[in-house]
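Attaching the record inline, Q. Sequence:
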Amino acid sequence: MNKAKRFRELLNGDRHFFLMEAHDGLSAKIVEEAGFPAIWASGLSITASLGVRDNNEISYTQLLDVLEYMNDAAGLPILVDGDTGYGNFNNACRLLQKLEQMGIAAVCIEDKKFPKTNSFLETKLDALADPLEFAGKIRAMKATQTSPDFAVIARLESLIVGAGVEDAVKRAELYLDAGADAILVHSKRPNSKDIDDFLAAFTLDVPIFIVPTKYYTVPVSHLIRDKRVRGIIWANHNVRACVTAMQEVSKKIYNEGSIASVEGTIASVSEIFRLQKNEEYLEMEKKYLPLYPNLSAAILAAGGPGSLDFNKPKALLKINGKSILEHQLDVLKSVGISNITIVRGYKREEIQASDLTMIDNHKWNSTNAVYSLSLVASAMGQPYLVLYGDVFFKRYLLRSIIDYAAERPSADVILVCVKEDYIDAGYSLRLNKKMDLFGDDSELKVVGVCADGEGMRDGCDVYFSGLLMINNHLAVKRLLRGEDIEGLHTSDFMRNALNQGLTLAVIMSSREAIVDVNSLNDLMKAGEIL
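Structure, as predicted:
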């Protein structure tokens, strides 16, 4: 069922319903999840979110831009605050045509002159449009629409400007005769007297919308005693809530010079991703992005648990219900990599997978990651990815490193690095040049390995993340055959590679995309990446 038809059913139903204000795609999604059956696309809220006045300071095409995002984000029918129709009958018909094409359900236009002033600021009696001209505008709009379900609602401003109930009743009858599907009667009194008087004087049995922004203390039970009151619009409360929250948070961060005290009081980044339907994107990514079925990968998971958990390998520590190893395997398999080797060591019996190759590092307690890498290198006959077993990362980094290797086959080893001090490894990597303003890493490579305390000069130093690709697998295999391999650290491997003339290319990542898990804070940060 299309949205216009769903709105028509609400309009013609036998009970009232609530419409909640939204002003962009995110707020539209939130309104839908809250359970409302329809959305009020508020002119005040949309203009406020754009930082302009509700005085026809945006064009109807700018309104359409916002509505397109709202309509895409939520599956609810939208009733659009169409102001006066953005001009005469011709402009109003053009607006209606575009709304129909977008799949919007309904539009409400008010009987004031163009350009209009927000109703709560309006005081002039002559702000009202000529009733015959406005009726002609409605007639033209109804003649223009192509869908029988699209609804045009006439908004009465007589009570707003003080023209009285009699004027409102006459206008309502005229607009309905012109073809309006419903009326909206508006008041800015702090009580419902205007509305009560209108309902008593108006006798036609048609759907009526009300907007209790100013008379919010009046119980809904009182407002719906008249069964014609069909739609109750909460017209601007989401944008007002946003303003209050943003003012408080911004002031607190400014005063404290920190975000620490507000982090627990605001939505998490993960919640934003959820509302943006990031999971839907990830599922589509699995279907449509290029796959790498012929590529191999190795996960170095032989090391002990460190300070986090003495009862299981670090790779089995869980983040959001799944182990680091499971997350790594999911990412590898999502891009088509199934030829995966895991190097086990500490409590190796706990790492099991029937469809994967297992290599046991029996010297895990006296060797480092490079020894595990040497065991992999001796078994590999093609280029391969290497993941340190305690590294959690966003999957785009995997695609970046694979694509980089395909484009630059002369890079013997490709390292994913970060600018910040990543782990307490006792070394940093010196690059051949500074990164430019836009983060271009196409020509970055390692020219030296700095001992602890020697790095961070001229902004050329970075830190290895734990994610790399061995592109020149034959050269690395030869490099890792030495008798002293059991005593080498990762920094030694890199120094030896440079001494042998190998090219160590660098891809830069932010700390928001990759985490080396060494503490509880790291585990929490990895959860945020999800």
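The longest strand covers residues 461-470. The first helix runs from residue 3 to 11.

More tomorrow.
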